[in-house]
Amino acid sequence: MLRLSAVFAAALAAGTLFVGCSSGVRAAEPVKAEKDRKPAPDFALKDADGKTVHLSDYKGKVVLLDFFATWCGPCKIEIPWFMDFERQNKNRGFSVLGVSMDDEGWEVVKPFLQDLGVNYRVLIGNDMTAQSYGGVDALPTSFLIDREGRIAAVHVGLVGRKDFENGIEKLLDTPPTGGIVPAVVVGAK
After folding, report:
1. Residue 14 has pLDDT above 60, yes or no
2. Domain for residue 63, yes or no?
3. Exposed end of the chain (fewer CB within 10 Å): N or C?
4. What is the CATH number of the domain that holds 72?
């Protein structure tokens, strides 16, 4: 809590606006045209089992990368939506990856995930990862990443569920390119 107060004080002193963790719904950024998408920075973060996860492990899938914290009210609104998206679309080449920015790490994150019954992979983030994504200064901040590993949309603060659904659908309906070969069943005639 002390760190949060310091962040707000620093933001006020710097004259910057700190968005996110507010109850208001913000307008969502539309999915960018393919030519306007930039590569999503790769990372190496640990999951709850201590396994190292790289974003590049998910190439070929549409990924919703969500930076959140257990104390963030709007994050708690979005997480059940993300659980639904994971359940509904995991067999279509879609994954949600949560990145917790909680300073206390797994000590607070594991009980939080268990209480909510989170069904997708969650990682513990760090300042370096947040900076590589342009400085995640507000929570929640979510990135929709296309099958090629490019950032298709960025949502800062709480946006509507339908905005996420529309973006995910658009990306899932776009066939993979760039040499991704469809799976072939060995032995099939």
Report:
1. no
2. yes
3. C
4. 3.40.30.10
Q: How does 170-187 read in b/e, with b if 16+ C-beta sit within 10 Å?
A: bbbeeebeeeeeeeeeee
What's the pLDDT band for 180 if we cut at 50, 70, 90? very low
Contacts of 102 (CB under 8 A, 6+ apart): 69, 70, 71, 108, 109, 124
CA–CA dist 12, 42 (Å, integer):
32
Please choose, from the candidates 68, 70, 59, the residue with its C-alpha nearest in 3D space to the C-alpha of residue 150.
Answer: 59
* Position 122 pLDDT exceeds 70: yes
Q: What is each CA distance from 84 to 2, 81, 94, 141, 147, in whole angstroms?
A: 34, 5, 12, 18, 20
Asked if 163 and 178 touch (Cβ cutoff 8 Å), the reply is no
Calpha distance 68→52 (Å, rounded) = 19
Number of domains in the chain: 1
CA 147 to CA 159: how far, in whole Å?
A: 22
Q: Is residue 133 part of a domain?
A: yes
Residues 40-60 pLDDT 10s: 999 999 999 999 999 999 999
- Full residue range of the structural domain in which residue 47 is found: 31-172
pLDDT digits (tens, 9 = 90+) for 62-83: 999 999 999 999 999 999 999 9
Q: What is the mean pLDDT of residues 153-159?
A: 94
